[in-house]
Every structure is written in structure tokens, then in C-alpha cells.
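Lab notebook, bench 4. The sequencing result for the construct came back, and we need a structural model before the next group meeting so we can plan mutations. Quick request posted to the team channel:

Model the 3D structure of this chain.
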Amino acid sequence: MPAKGKICNFDCIYCECGWNKDGRGDTHLPSAADVRESLEAKLRECAANGTPIDSITFSGDGEPTLNPAFPEIIRDTIALRDRFYPAAVVSVLSNATMAWKPEVFEALKLVDNPILKLDAPTDALAARINRPVGHYSVDEIVESLSLFDGDFVLQTMFLRSGDFDSASPEVIGPWMDIVRRLHPREVMAYTLDRPAPAEGLQKFTVEEMRTLLQPLIDEGYKIQIKG
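Done. Here's the predicted structure in C-alpha cell form:
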């Protein structure tokens, strides 16, 4: 992603990085060589200083899979991880919109933790929460996620606004049905933790989310809840 800007095909109402329109000062996407050089230098420095590293995580100001060099970047990262910190995991936080591309899917399959987002069970609610740029279909995202055969982490934001509530039956019921269909190895449920660009958003408590997700917990799903 850009060093100072933001490039994303979502414009989420809760994004801690702000609205897309406010992050256009830097649109340069680093090349695979750029990332490889920077990562190797940092890992070499950390190894020399005895700094422990548990995870090398791709996240930040935008959607990492939009970088055309993403597959090569992942292969380079895994090679450098194996060289300097073989016990560390490689994680990617993604909105899953590019997972339909074979090269992106294969790259996500290579990482230890593909953490893939689905905040809403319907296109209408996704349009309200995620504000996707261009075409977006929940059904198509679910179809792409099904190709992982459950070997991924599903990440979902829980929040309330004046016109929607993640806990309402028409939202939580269909969302749970999607979880049951995909059977991810873990569900990461989280809520607002930092200032959001949209006004009027309300966070959930950990206790509220645990109560809400208890049926899935009782069914044996691994649920990570972060307040």
C-alpha cells in the first residue's frame, strides 16, 4: 500500500484510516522488489538485535490484494520469513474482493492466516457499511470463500447505527447461516475500537457479542471476540 495515502475498494463507515477521498495524497503502490528490499532489511535488523517476531502481517491503509504484485510479494515474504524467522506466521487482512482471481486465491492459500472480511449478509447492508467501489456481491464473496474449504479466518465488524444493527434478527440470522456454510477455522468478531469517519456509530460490548454468538460457540466454532 502507499506509504502515506490510502487505496481501497471499500470505503467503510468505521475505517480508522478515514474516508478514501482524504487519503489520495500518495497513490504509489510499491513493487515486489520494493517490498522485498524493505522487508529483508527490517528482518535482518531485527534478527541482529534479537528482536522477536511472531507475525508478519499485511494490513494498513487499504486493500493489500489490489497491488498487482501481491502474489509475488507473498512468495517473497514467505521466503524471507523462512530465512530469518521460520517460527513466525504470515497473515493477511483482506476484504476478500480479489479472492476470485486464481493468482490472488493461491497467494492467500500460501499464508498462515488469511483473515477475510464479511461484515454483512446482504448486498444492501454491505453497501451501507462497507460502501464498496464498483461491483460487489455477497453471494460471489461467499462463493470465493467456499474455495478455502474452511481454512481461513472470517472477520466481521459488529456495530449499530440509526438504520441498522448487527444484532437484529434479519442480520445475525443470515450471517450465522453463512458461517455455517463456510465453516471457517476461526471467526474474528470485533467492534469499534478507534475513531470512525462516520457519525452515530455505536460499538458492542464483549459481553453482547459473546451472547450474540453463543449459538455458534455451542456448535463448536472457534470464536475470537475483541471489544
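Strands lie at 55-58, 89-94, 113-117, 153-160, 186-191, 202-203, 223-226.
Will bring this to the meeting.
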